[in-house]
Automatic annotation (TrEMBL):
Homology family: Belongs to the calsyntenin family.
GO molecular function, one term: calcium ion binding
Protein name in UniProt: Cadherin domain-containing protein
PROSITE patterns attached to this UniProt entry: CADHERIN_2
SMART domains: CA
Organism: Phrynocephalus forsythii
Keyword Glycoprotein: yes
Gene3D superfamilies associated with the record: 2.60.120.200, Cadherins
Length: 714
């Protein structure tokens, strides 16, 4: 009886197992789990078990125990978990043009407990057609060189598999950003800058900054160049006639225009090549013009001024030839040059042979200047100021002394008349048939001579001033250590300094300004070139040039309207009175521009024809008003137009009178023109011979670029 087994006992802390006796006699029992076992909570269990017999007594106090046996249980795994990634997204940055061994590593985990089901055996890129591959350890690499211009960023989805081939429940996003190779240079600037007339000064590069790619930069030198040499005479200037401009700049009166617009009174320029827009005369080595006698006085005195715009390049194959700008030589018999201005071998030469007077002495006669600008094919403004025996040249407002002065004997007096010419020199003697010689190749404009006076530096600066240029907004807020300087015409600006931040700020303030009310529309090119120095002996970075342009828009065209009383009758006695009759007592000059109104509701205005049009009055200057006689010219024996000269005082105006009418000219306001025109009187002291007179009045701005209606008066 004592050999039967009645129970098994498990020793250990709350083991989830129980042992049940199946056969008391044989001692067979079964070990089982009390509830489901989770491998992920515990992979294995070790405990001690003992068998008990069915010993005496119900209390079981006398039971006999077997020896202790150790039980070791391993829990077998089931692949119940899918892999999951450690991060929700992965991000990496690569530089373009490189192949990487590993761009980044992704990592997934699996909560199964066995190596077979908890290890990640494989990763896969789900997104198709991407230049990336992934290995078994989750390392992603690029399979080709990436280009920033082709694609800035790649987004790829990646999945993982455990060794039981169970796939991750959710794929993970990998973002790869492609960084451009750092290229030193200016960043954030626009190639095209738009300029509307009247905008004042506008910044060219408001957000510009320099990328140095961590180069050890110690000093920066930047040149900004506004290229306007193909606009007018080298830049946008007022296109008034030379006479009007000289009046405007306060030049002393009496300048004689040697290259005027061809007209009945000034016909000597009629045969020359002319670019009418800017009053530019082109000489191709075949033309010259003879200036009629009486236009320029014979005696220029010891003080006189010659001014001109000139554009001239080196003449191929004509190295030894003199090229005449202005020449006063013998008309016949002899070939003596009394005074001349010419170009020879890219030097400017002024010749002045004094007439023989009391003393027959050697005198300064030839003055030579050697300047690169004489042959650079660009427009420059030249003023020759003669205060004999001193001759000074101003070019673009800067003074130059001659590098060479040669002396000569005076010219002996003779009865021979002189011929003044432009563009070539008249050879009157020493050849069988007098002809032009020493032709000029290039362009000239505004060629004037003023006898008896020389011009001041201030007036010279005004006459050649550009109306457009570079500017710096708020100079006072330029950073410390910034040096800058402009060239005289403000088309070139140099900025330098040692602090990149300050240089950036300074460049952000550089602006373009055009102070003309009606600027020449079109493109102005901009070039920014920079040099940098670096600390130490490092090879320094080079910064590419910026090529940009300013687009200047066309100004709105003004409409100039003249109005007033257009016919009247007066008793003959009033015309015969010494004050005559006021012609235009109530004349009005008004200028308007057309503006489109933009109504609030555009649907109603789909019909273009019904768009309301607004006329806006604008104020600008005029540069001439002509009162012209319609019909037969005035007969000076019985009629005339008159104006008191005191009416012109304090204004930039002048007037000329002829049998064809009265011309008032000069750059001045419409109001001042009105005031003067209202004072013009018509007198006729022989009224019985004429029944009526008709006049027409016409005004202009910018040398005829904008003209008014023709106002008729009867």
């Amino acid at each position: 009886m004592g050999s039967e087994i009645c129970a098994f006992k498990i020793h250990g802390q709350e083991m989830p197992f129980e042992a049940v006796v199946l056969n008391k006699t044989s001692g067979e029992g079964r070990l089982g789990a009390r509830h489901p076992i989770d491998c992920e909570l515990q992979k294995e269990y070790t405990f001690i078990i003992q068998a008990y017999d069915c010993g005496a007594g119900p209390s079981g106090t006398n039971w006999k125990k077997s020896h202790k046996a150790v039980v070791h249980i391993q829990v077998k795994d089931v692949n119940e978990f899918s892999p999951t990634f450690k991060e929700t997204t992965y991000k990496a940055t690569v530089t373009e043009g490189k192949i990487y061994d590993s761009v980044l590593q992704v990592e997934a985990m699996d909560e199964d407990c066995s190596p077979q089901y908890s290890q990640i055996c494989n990763y896969e890129i789900v997104t198709t057609d991407v230049p990336f591959a992934i290995d078994r350890n989750g390392n992603i690499r690029n399979t080709e060189k990436l280009g920033y211009d082709k694609q800035h960023q790649y987004e790829i989805m990646v999945t993982a598999f455990d060794c039981g081939q169970k796939r991750a429940t959710e794929d993970v996003l990998v973002q790869v950003e492609v960084k451009p190779v750092c290229k030193p240079g200016w960043q954030e600037w626009n190639k095209r800058i738009e300029y509307k007339p009247g905008s004042g000064s506008i910044p060219l590069f408001p957000s510009i900054h320099l990328e140095t790619c961590d180069g050890p930069v110690s000093y920066i030198h930047t040149t900004i160049q506004l290229q306007t040499n193909y606009i007018g005479k080298g830049c946008d200037r007022e296109t008034y006639s030379e006479k009007s401009l000289q009046k405007l700049c306060g030049a002393s009166s009496g300048a004689i225009d040697l290259l005027p617009t061809p007209s009945a009174a000034t016909n000597w320029t009629a045969g020359l090549l002319i670019d009418s827009n800017d009053m530019i005369f082109k000489f191709d080595g075949k033309q010259g013009a003879k200036i009629p006698d009486g236009i320029v006085p014979k005696n220029l005195t010891d003080q006189f001024t010659i001014t001109m715009w000139m554009k001239h390049g080196p003449s191929p194959g004509l190295r030894a030839e003199k090229e005449t700008i202005l020449c006063n030589s013998d008309k016949t018999e002899m070939n003596r040059h009394h005074y001349a201005l010419y170009v020879h071998n890219c030097r400017l030469v002024f010749l002045l042979r004094k007439d023989f007077d009391q003393a027959d002495t050697f005198r300064p006669a030839e003055f030579h200047w050697k300047l690169d600008q004489i042959c650079d094919k660009e427009w420059h403004y030249y003023v020759v100021n003669v205060e004999f025996p001193v001759v000074t040249l101003y070019m673009d407002g800067t003074t130059y002394e001659p590098y060479l002065v040669t002396n000569d004997w005076p010219i002996h007096p003779s009865h021979i008349a002189m011929q003044l010419t432009v563009g070539a020199c008249w050879q009157g003697g020493e050849i069988s048939k007098p002809r032009f010689d020493q032709y000029f190749h290039g362009s000239l404009a505004s060629l004037t001579i003023r006898p008896g006076k020389i011009e001041s530096q201030k007036v010279i600066s005004c006459l050649q001033a550009c109306k457009e240029g570079l500017d710096i907004n708020s100079l006072e807020s330029l950073g410390q250590g910034i040096k800058y300087h402009f060239n005289p015409s403000q088309s070139v600006l140099v900025i330098e300094g040692d602090d990149i931040g300050n240089i950036n700020q300074a460049l952000q303030k550089v602006s373009y300004i055009n102070s003309r009310q009606f600027p020449t529309s079109g493109i102005r090119r901009l070039k920014v070139s920079s040099r940098v120095q670096c600390f130490g002996e490092d090879i320094c970075i080079s910064i590419p040039d910026i090529d940009a342009y300013v687009m200047v828009f066309q100004a709105k065209e003004p409409t100039i309207t003249i109005s007033g009383m257009d016919h009247f009758a007066r008793p003959a006695a009033q015309f015969e009175h010494e004050r005559g009759v006021t012609l235009l007592p109530d004349i009005r000059i008004v200028s308007t521009i057309t503006k489109m109104e933009h109504p609030p509701d555009l649907k109603e205005t789909m019909d273009r024809a019904h768009k309301p049009v607004m006329l806006e009055e604008m104020h600008h200057n005029l540069d001439f008003c002509d009162i012209l006689v319609t019909g037969p010219e005035l007969d000076p024996l019985q009629e005339c137009l008159e104006l008191d000269w005191k009416e012109l005082q304090g204004k930039h105006l002048d007037a000329t009178n002829s049998t064809r009418g009265y011309s008032i000219y000069g750059v001045d306001s419409m109001k001042n023109y009105e005031e003067v025109l209202r004072q013009v009187r018509y007198r006729n002291w022989h009224t019985s011979s004429i029944f009526d007179r008709k006049f027409r009045i016409k005004c202009s701005e910018l040398n005829g670029r904008y003209t008014s209606n023709e106002f008729n008066l009867e």
